[in-house]
Request: fold
Amino acid sequence: MTAEKYTEDHEWVRIEGDDLVVVGITAYAQEQLGDLVHADLPQVGQLLSRGDEAAVIESVKAAGEIKSPVSGTVTAVNGALIEDPSLPNQDPLGDGWFFRIRLSDPAELDTLMDEIAYRRYLAN
Reply:
């Protein structure tokens, strides 16, 4: 079973095992940004602390950063975003993922919102 957690900056984290997560942006974030036209991804092996800038995305409306929702080591990036940066627009919770991280502190996941809390956050 997979479970998603969410940040106030509209990133999602999908838990894929005890210490591995996938990171992307929410449907709300991609709607606000508009059509994505470019993505700069982190490097595999890069160490990220929670809150660090992990990726930069550009859309027809604006440029923005994706912050790392958790601390750890980048284990993979979605290279398909280089060829087609609009993947998060088409499938933000699926093929539009940005990177995977091996967690250095799994307890950080407890500070993120579950789906119900995130929907409440969006409503306010």
